[in-house]
Automatic annotation (TrEMBL):
Pathway: Carbohydrate degradation; pentose phosphate pathway; D-ribose 5-phosphate from D-ribulose 5-phosphate (non-oxidative stage): step 1/1
Keyword Isomerase: yes
Native organism: Arabis nemorensis
Reactions it catalyzes: aldehydo-D-ribose 5-phosphate = D-ribulose 5-phosphate
PANTHER family attached to this UniProt entry: RIBOSE-5-PHOSPHATE ISOMERASE 2-RELATED, RIBOSE-5-PHOSPHATE ISOMERASE 3, CHLOROPLASTIC-RELATED
Enzyme Commission numbers on file: 5.3.1.6
Protein's name in the database: ribose-5-phosphate isomerase
Molecular function GO terms recorded: ribose-5-phosphate isomerase activity
Pfam families: Rib_5-P_isom_A
Taxon lineage: Eukaryota, Viridiplantae, Streptophyta, Embryophyta, Tracheophyta
A biological process term (GO) from this entry: pentose-phosphate shunt, non-oxidative branch
Amino acid sequence: FITSDKSSTEISLASINLTQDDLKRIAAYKAVEFVQSGMVLGLGTGSTAKHAVDRIGELLRQGKLENIVGIPTSKKTQEQALSLGIPLSDLDSHPVIDLSIDGADEVDPDLNLVKGRGGSLLREKMIEGASKKFVVIVDESKMVKHIGGSRLALPVEIVPFCWRFTAEKLRGLLEGYGCEANLRLGEKGKPFVTDNGNYIVDLVNVEKDMGDLGLVSDAILRLPGVVEHGMFLDMASTVIIAGELGVKIKNK
Ligand code: 5RP
């Protein structure tokens, strides 16, 4: 059943045994209900967004959607979308996007997000920031009281040039919050390289509440060497949360 009030809607899934991946798929499919023919769509990255891209491909194949243009947030999503026959373009040709759908690593009660565990935070922020509507899809494990808390890292994309210098500046900046700054490693212990040729530093053990997130965001962005960080403040229009007990839709 579905219950709804002005700012949220709930759909009950009680008594069905669901895996975390089922929950991700349910959230993703629900988000794709917002998609209409003729839309320019931001296509997110990650295991949840992948379900949304699959679903869009399926609806196009079935002729239930037409004239969609996808703007992928990563090379991986680009490959997936191409394999599904979704027509693609970019922000240069489509500076205004109708709707973006993407996952998140953390969501707070004000719908602020942490993103970037998949390493695509820069393109995600550019594309989702250019969207008239940004729908975030998560399973309930992603809901937190304060983003950037100790459960997960806050990713920061930095230029490779003298990355230790930048990482140390980041650590120093958030020292008061008990922060460590770890270079993200990829295959064979080599630095993980983003689609933009940059590195990622994961800020871990940031304390439960960083206070004014806007101030922290500005301070991080002011550091030379920093390209972007994974806090998405005041960007989500809607968050679709799939949990054991149902689907909840929260609107900004
Ligand atoms: C990639 C992201 C992802 O959307 C985020 O990490 C969530 O991923 P998943 O859906 O696999 O849990 O921000 O940069």
